[in-house]
Amino acid sequence: MSELKNDRFLRALLKQPVDATPVWMMRQAGRYLPEYRASRAKAGDFMSLCRNAEFACEVTMQPLDRYPSLDAAILFSDILTIPDAMGLGLYFETGEGPKFKKTVRTAKDVEALPVPDAQKDLGYVMNAVSTIRKELNGRVPLIGFSGSPWTLATYMVEGGSSKDFRLAKALAFNDPVTMHALLDKLTQSVISYLNAQIKAGAQAVQIFDTWGGALSHNAYREFSLNYMQKIVNGLIRENEGRQVPVILFTKNGGQWLESMADTGATALGLDWTTDIAAARARVGDKVALQGNMDPTMLYASPKRIREEVATILQGYGNGTGHIFNLGHGITPEVDPANAGAFIESVHELSAQYHQDS
To answer: Is 133 a catalytic residue?
Structure first.
């Protein structure tokens, strides 16, 4: 594998000195880019884009070609590939998001679920990872990812996205044995899926716990964090002679940062509701922090975006261990020029915080 020309992202994750704060964006390959929309139209639909390694590579590279100063690429895929490989039949309704043809609501449903073979059943993802790594040619590191077991379970039980997670929570509270059996299967699946991505060339991995923050304090620990801990314990942590950092991101999870830091993850993703200065004070040197500008700030003027970037950088303060990102994914209506202003502002304004590096 080719040498990394820009390893700023990996160095910051490991709290090693950097010359500027690295930056990437969740959903950086996506609908806000006209070139992405053109590729998707050519592919026919979203899953055809994911399942074709050339298309997945093309859209992964698009933001890097438009914004050459991005410090990482993230695999183009979807968090729901695992439930799809379990036979639930993933499809997308226009304007309604992901849906499943089959749901999982009983002990019998859970028993019938296979644990997918990452190479065989999700081989198209590994093909995409290796194709992207080759195309990157050491330009920046490649991030692999998965949904968290709890987040995947909510979609599988609800049959799609949900505002209140009524069915998933009812299953967890009324029949915890069945919910734990489902989460166990998902945990095994996520471990083998992420390890296969690492073997195929992913140089860091992120676990997206998008809906963990919808749980109460105790339920979060029982049904979400507990399983992310098992994943962290089960992952390959060194490959190609380098450490493989693990990022945990629980949206609306700011109240659990200390417990998340105790998992042994390398970094924690912050959404925009948590103050980064307070987060750094709470976790100390235990983990790096990733985030956390409100994605809707990208609808503001470049001048206002720059001010917000300055505020967040000042909040984190001097030294390494910060990866700049949005507090959640970039939204489809953002002007690509504003995303560019955001990325440039991070590099320009952050150098002063790394002068001792």
So the answer is: no
